[in-house]
Structures are given as structure tokens and as C-alpha cells.
Design brief:
CATH class: Alpha Beta
CATH topology: Rossmann fold
Radius of gyration: 17 Å
Strand content: 15-25%
Distance between the termini: 32 Å
Oligomer: single chain
Shape: globular
Helix content: 40-55%
Number of strands: 7
Structural class: alpha/beta
Largest sheet: 7 strands, parallel
Length: 253
């Protein structure tokens, strides 16, 4: 009754933007816990296949499926290919995909700069969630995990386009959690801190690290492990929550 192992055997998980960065390790952690994982990518087949090979080399099961998650028709195809490949409907949806993140002053910003971010962090999760809901409702359970950011709390300057879109995810998550709770579907927001990945190679992290109470930078697998927990049966009574994984750099919303 009290055995905790985060067993995801037989579950089907779709991770968007999973070819590299945090998505790669989220996918790997889910696969390591027994889930069948779809590594979604938009551009690099090679990078996505490397992630799939990485997962398989560690005994996991994964396939790569291309798809622009901001496009309604491509989302339909992506979900359809996923369900066909694994012979079932999606149990776990991780909305992780992102695009360019330019730093802009208010004077430099246009409405289109804000829309670019909203397309990834609001539109894409909406399209994907709508596509997987029938399967989750039929099963009477499901996990939707939105990958947010600590910028919601930090309010970084010259970054309002990104901060605004990430902040929108918080309200969206809580509203969805209220609506989908009666169907056994949990919806949570996971907020990584600055977790160095490939694109941060050579960047000085010492200034940020000084503000982290745990005194060190996080690792991508820290985010993967948190996703696995929220996807597991052990988190079945947690929904509508905003969880920061950043060593205490910020505190709860």
C-alpha cells in the first residue's frame, strides 16, 4: 500500500519539444519509469533520433514524431501517429515545446512578439490538450503537465513577452485543473529555474548560482524526475499546482 516506485509501465507519454534540452531528459526519465515515450520535434530529425537512441540504450521505449505543435492539423497528425504506434491513447501530455526567446525592451516590443510566445505556451497546449482529452476522459484518468518557468515570479526585465506568456500558463493550468478534475485528469505547472542545457554551453552561471539557497545549479534530470512524480499514481491527488524546481531560488506562487 505504501510502496512508491513511480511505475509508469504501459503508459503512453507525449513530450513536446523533446529532441534536446529539458525535453530530452524529461523523455528519458519517463521512459526509465516504464512509459512509452513520443519524442516530438519540429526541426531536427537527427537530434530527435539521438534522444530516442539515448533512451533505448538505457532500456527505454521511445519513438520520434515530427510535428509543429502550434499548427492544428499537425497536432492532429502527431497525436494520431502516436496512438497508432503504441496502440492506445495518450495518458501523459507534457507541454514543453518552446521557440526563440528574444530579450526586448518595451519600446522594442510589438504585439507580434507577445503572440509568438503565446503561440508556444498557450495555443500549443490548448491544441494538444483538446486532441488527447477524449482518450483521457474515456479512461477516467490522465496527466497534463505544463512546463512553465520561474520567470513568473522573478519578472525578468526586457523579457515581458516571454514572462507574460509563461504567466498565462498559470491561470490556464488552474482553470483546466478545476474543469478536468471530475474526470480524474490532473493538470499541473512545473517551473524550472535556470537549468543549463546545450544552448548554455560556456555561459557563466556563477551570478545566478549565488542566489540559489542550495548553492548549486540544477541538472536537467531534476526536471525529468519532477515530471515523473507528477505523472505517477503517487501524485493522483495533486492538481492545479505550480511547482518550482530551482533549488529555492524562488518560493511558491
Amino acid at each position: 500500500m505504501f510502496h512508491i516506485n513511480h511505475n509508469l509501465n504501459g503508459k503512453i507519454a507525449l513530450v513536446t519539444g523533446a529532441s534536446k534540452g529539458l525535453g530530452k531528459y524529461i523523455s528519458a526519465a519517463l521512459a526509465d519509469s516504464g512509459a512509452n515515450v513520443i519524442v516530438n520535434f519540429a526541426h531536427s530529425q537527427e537530434a530527435a533520433q539521438q534522444t530516442v537512441d539515448f533512451i533505448r540504450s538505457n532500456g527505454g521505449n521511445a519513438i520520434a514524431v515530427k510535428g509543429d505543435v502550434t499548427n492544428k492539423e499537425e497536432v492532429k497528425r502527431l497525436v494520431g501517429e502516436t496512438e497508432e504506434a503504441f496502440g492506445g491513447t495518450i495518458d501523459i501530455l507534457v507541454n514543453n515545446a518552446t521557440g526563440p526567446q528574444p530579450t526586448l525592451s518595451i519600446e522594442e516590443s510589438t504585439w507580434e512578439d507577445y503572440l509568438d510566445q503565446l503561440n508556444f505556451f498557450v495555443k500549443a497546449p490548448l491544441l494538444l490538450t483538446k486532441e488527447v482529452l477524449l482518450g483521457m476522459k474515456t479512461k477516467g484518468e490522465g496527466r497534463i503537465i505544463n512546463i512553465g518557468s520561474e520567470v513568473i515570479q522573478v519578472g525578468n526585465p526586457h523579457f515581458a513577452n516571454y514572462v507574460t506568456a509563461k504567466s498565462a500558463q498559470l491561470g490556464m493550468t488552474r482553470s483546466w485543473a478545476s474543469e478536468l478534475g471530475p474526470h480524474g485528469i490532473t493538470v499541473n505547472l512545473l517551473n524550472p529555474g535556470w537549468i543549463p542545457v546545450e544552448r548554455h554551453e560556456g555561459v557563466d552561471t556563477s551570478g545566478y548560482q549565488k542566489g540559489v539557497p542550495l548553492g548549486k545549479m540544477g541538472e536537467p534530470i531534476d526536471i525529468g524526475n519532477a515530471v515523473v512524480f507528477l505523472a505517477s499514481n503517487e501524485a493522483k491527488f495533486i492538481t492545479g499546482q505550480s511547482l518550482s524546481v530551482n533549488g529555492g531560488f524562488t518560493f511558491g506562487i
